[in-house]
Amino acid sequence: MTNEELFFDALKSHRESKNIEISEICEFTKINISYIEAIESGEFNVLPTVYMRLFLRAYADFIGADSIKALEDFELHTTGKIQKRTDFEIKSVEDTGNFVGMNETMESVTSQVSPKQIATGAVVIIGLFLVLYWAGQITSQQKNVVEKKTESIEATEPIEVTDPVEEAQMEEPTAIPIEEPEEILEEKKSPIIDEAAKVAAEIPPEVIEDNSASLPNRLPLNVNDFLLENRTRQTTNILKLFKPYNITVLTLADTKLNISKSNKGKLTELINAATPAGEIFQFDFESTINFEFWNSSHVRVKLNEIPLDTYFSNDGLSVRGSYEAEKSQLYLGFYQK
């Protein structure tokens, strides 16, 4: 059997190596589970002909495989050759993971196009415009929510105050340069007290009391707290966010946390310390945010406005993870203390 005939086996092995369940793919892409199983078993006659390449590309993109090579292998497997194509990319804008990014290619402009194909293409283009318009509305709404619930740490215009009393009490705002030195950026890691009061007020007192526990020590987290032999499980999840990116952490008990951010190979530590219950920390990041928590039940974590409660657990394990904005991937590892 040739390598081309086994390309679907390679895709399945790639998925299993990433610990990605078929149910995760179906939930995110909305593709029927029988079609995913057909792709991995090479039974392409089961898939609808019109959507066969679309489903294969969405599947390959989700598991992090090379979708272009997967399509070429599919053609070699089914036709014995690779046709020249003029590719174009169709992307549906996502909010928090409810829409599926899709890339599909057109047949070569030199090949003959049937009237049915022309009609199908027209419907796809109209649908694309509708999706982009709807996504634009959702993006605008999300941006408004983020602006209301977080304090901006970037340069802002002076605030207009219509009340004369409030205007008299306000201090003249200090302009922040657009290109700030690294020392100033690191100073933005202080807790946001007003927001902490709002969030903490929503947490029942018994939750904080039940999760509070004495720390073995007050030393910062380090590599010895996350040894490979103590890892019980790890997961990779797709989570689509929009700029600006930020992480918010609320402590429910005395605990330890370590947060840093990465951008273009440069690592910046934001906080690594033992903290008391009832504190809230918020940090902005551009590319990748890295985090470690001594106890998963001691914190409530959000990326932008998306809670990570469904990805964490209350089993008291330590958590080490990261979120890569470019890949929309959330990595999590859980460790015994």
Poorly predicted runs are 86-112, 150-162, 164-193
Order of helices and strands: HHHHHEEHHHHHEEEEEEEEEE
Q: Compute the gyration radius: what is it?
A: 24 Å
Structural class comes to alpha+beta
SS elements, strand count:
12
Give the amount of beta strand, in percent: 15-25%
- Report the span from N to C terminus: 48 Å
The major beta sheet can be summarized as:
6 strands, antiparallel
- Helical stretch tally: 10
Strand order of the largest sheet: 3-12-11-8-5-6
Question: What is the percent of helical residues?
Answer: 25-40%
Number of domains: 2
Mean pLDDT equals 75
Overall body shape: elongated
Describe the secondary structure blueprint for this structure.
Layout: H1 7-17, H2 22-29, H3 33-41, H4 52-63, H5 67-78, E1 85-87, E2 105-107, H6 115-149, H7 164-169, H8 182-186, H9 193-202, H10 205-211, E3 231-238, E4 245-251, E5 255-263, E6 266-275, E7 280-285, E8 288-293, E9 299-303, E10 306-307, E11 318-324, E12 329-335
Helix pairs in contact: 4-5
